[in-house]
Design goal:
Layout: E1 2-8, H1 24-27, H2 31-38, E2 41-45, H3 56-63, H4 68-71, H5 76-82, E3 92-102, E4 118-121, H6 129-143, E5 148-154, E6 157-162, E7 169-170, E8 188-189, H7 192-207, H8 210-217, E9 225-232, H9 240-244, E10 248-251, H10 255-264, E11 267-269, H11 282-293, E12 298-303, H12 305-311, H13 315-336, E13 343-348, E14 365-371, H14 384-387, E15 391-393, H15 399-405
Parallel strand pairs: 1-12, 1-13, 2-15, 10-11, 10-12
Antiparallel strand pairs: 2-14, 3-4, 3-6, 3-9, 5-6, 7-8, 13-14
Length: about 400
Amino acid sequence: MKYIILLCDGMGDYPIAELGNRTPMQAANTPNMDELARNGEVGMAKTTPDGFSPGSDVTNLAILGYDPKKYYTGRSPLEAASIGIVLDKDDVAYRCNLVTLKTKNNSYDIESLNSHLIMDDYSAGHITTDEAMELIGEINNQIGTEDIIFYSGISYRHLMVWRGGKVKVRCTPPHDISGKSIGEYLPKGDGDDILKRLIGLSVNVLRFHHVNEDRIKENKKPANCIWLWGQGKAPQMPKFEDKFKLKGAMISAVDLMKGLGIYAGFDIINVPGATGYIDTNYKGKAEYALNELKKKDIVYVHVEAPDEASHNGDMAGKIKAIEDFDNLVVGTVMKGIKEFGDYKIMVLCDHRTPLSTKTHTADPVPVLIFNSKKQGKVDGAFDEATCEKGRMFNPAHTMMEYFLRK
């Protein structure tokens, strides 16, 4: 038996008036997911345990079969693992976004950090990796120390490691506060003075950097500040193979997912053209997944695009991303997986990212399971309403055992 998980990040949503009170999943043309749902089993999964924020770190940990209450220590240690950073037991990793702040007068020329500034773009206009590497390098040169080190990642997503640092501080994801004044969302708690100082110093480093000057000339948003959040220490969790006796691979363009795969003991497969955005190489991910199934028992394929569209409030982009996922990922897998004989496919999202909120919610998410050996009969398409009539996986970390064994 071969197993594949196809995860469409942030796909779930709420009914939208402009769509005739349908959700994007209902509005999108998704014949492949609908076929799997009609001939399989559908339900809902509570991927965010009570008391947790609905981040992709928590939700994907649960989907992989790990209880977040037992194994979750924070987002950034997972991202650190993805770029080869080994954390000592007292090290604290922080996600370091390059962001765009603006004044109330819509100016990007920020002279210093103040509470009235507005979070204009959590991704600094989806800055390129080459541009970002130069900026993060300059930040590390100017404000990094022996105990505080900045590491470049991909696009706007980077890391800071604080040796012997503080972890009990409230930090807010920047994508949760798009369009809001940052004052009440600056770090608050143990060590907040150091974190706010670093954020403030980054403004001076970035203000006149030639990368930002060039971006402004090209009518692009400048990366005029860093934002620190998602802190945590290295988790201690068993390997997936030890837990479920199966060898796996992870396919994602997102550092968080790669790090989670590393801690689970999966091989990390990098796909050319995979971006973590709406222009990602959908079909390439599916083709690489099928190739990995020749050598592995289970492959986890993560596509970020619908989540990014939701954070940007882009309804048309979200619907297109769902349709591309269905056509190029699910459709490609359905055509190629039959050569393996017996197989199971799980399709789901990790959390909902409603266009109306532009951020994650803790609502249960729709899930389908297709078993080539056991045909089901579901009345309806693959969407939130149909899945609400099916089984509820609560807590979601029990779902992996069900998927593999039932």
